[in-house]
Design a protein that fits this description.
Order of helices and strands: HEEEEEHEEEHEEHEH
Number of strands: 11
CATH topology of one domain: Outer membrane lipoprotein wza fold like
Distance between the termini: 28 Å
Strand content: 15-25%
Oligomer: single chain
Helix content: 25-40%
CATH architecture of one domain: Roll
Radius of gyration: 34 Å
């Protein structure tokens, strides 16, 4: 009878193991393979690379960028007030000088001069909008001053709205996302270097860039495969692509790590149940063997 019970337990374990492998296969086929990126290395000149970088388009301001704004008035010439001199002075009511963060509503707050919309504008357009807004208030009651004397100097000090992302697959244990501001010259090697390299579970042969796209009906995702070994060990630049705003550098985990995590999740509860069962059976056998039973035999 004891041997029959052991055989049944082994059969049960084998069946559970088979179900576990089957479940892993089903999940892998329906969940992963359906979204497996299929891509080829683009030909030379098709996308920017390490040795073929391009300059990004003119910067467009968005929240939460930080702008450095300076507004000054050129002092009129004493002999000819219609002509400005090289001397500058601050605005009469309140100086506008320093760093200003673009608020969620797309405006910058300039103190007593109120808020000025700048989101969606280039630097030139934003400077023109601020200059126009200030001119209406500063020169409204000023006699003899020309609004053309107002100068607005604007630049971006913190590029917070344009980012790229490095995503690490945890092998079935979640994903880690690291956002970084774009500076205009990053490559795949720079992106991975910003996170101190690949994690232990990462697969060196399964890395790609997912370039953002509106993905309308019938349009394929733009996937750029990365040859990490070629980039790092052989100095090849063919897949060391230039990072663009919104890019997702995805690093997949090793397949064995993913399978091991899935198996652990399936078999761990089973092991606990059998552990409790065996512990209970062992405890009962020990009690019976030591004669702690109740009845005539135990007296």
């Amino acid at each position: 009878m004891r041997r029959l019970r052991c055989d049944r337990r082994w059969v049960t374990l084998l069946l559970l193991g088979g179900l576990g492998f089957g479940a892993i296969g089903c999940v892998h086929t329906t969940g992963h393979m359906q979204h497996e990126p299929i891509a080829m290395v683009p030909p030379p000149g098709a996308v920017p690379r390490e040795l073929e970088k391009v300059t990004l388009p003119e910067y467009v301001i968005e929240p939460p960028d930080v702008l450095r704004i300076e507004a000054v008035i050129r002092v009129p010439d004493e002999k000819d007030p219609t002509k400005p001199t090289d001397q500058l002075r601050s605005l009469p009511i309140q100086p506008v000088f320093g760093e200003y963060q673009v608020r969620p509503d797309g405006t910058v707050f300039l103190g007593v001069y109120g808020s000025v919309p700048v989101a969606g504008y280039t630097l030139r357009q934003a400077a023109s909008a601020i200059r126009e807004s200030l001119s209406k208030q500063v020169f409204a009651d000023a006699d003899g001053l020309n609004p053309e004397f107002l100068l607005v100097i604007l630049d971006v000090t913190q590029y917070n709205s344009k980012r790229y992302y490095v995503i690490f697959d945890g092998g079935g244990a979640g994903e880690q996302v690291f956002p970084f501001p774009i500076t205009g010259s990053e490559t795949v090697l720079d992106a991975i270097g910003n996170v101190q390299g690949l994690p232990v579970v990462a697969s060196k042969r399964n890395i790609w860039i997912a370039r953002r796209c509106p993905n309308p009906a019938g349009q394929l995702d733009q996937i750029l495969p990365v040859d990490w070994i070629g980039i790092t060990q052989h100095g090849m630049t063919a897949t060391n692509y230039q990072i663009m705003p919104g890019d997702r550098v995805y690093v997949k985990a090793q397949r064995l790590v993913t399978i091991d995590t899935a198996l652990a999740r399936i078999l761990s509860p089973v092991e606990r149940i059998f552990g409790i069962t065996l512990l209970g059976a062992t405890t009962v056998n020990q009690i019976k063997g030591r004669g702690f039973g109740f009845g005539n035999n135990g007296q």
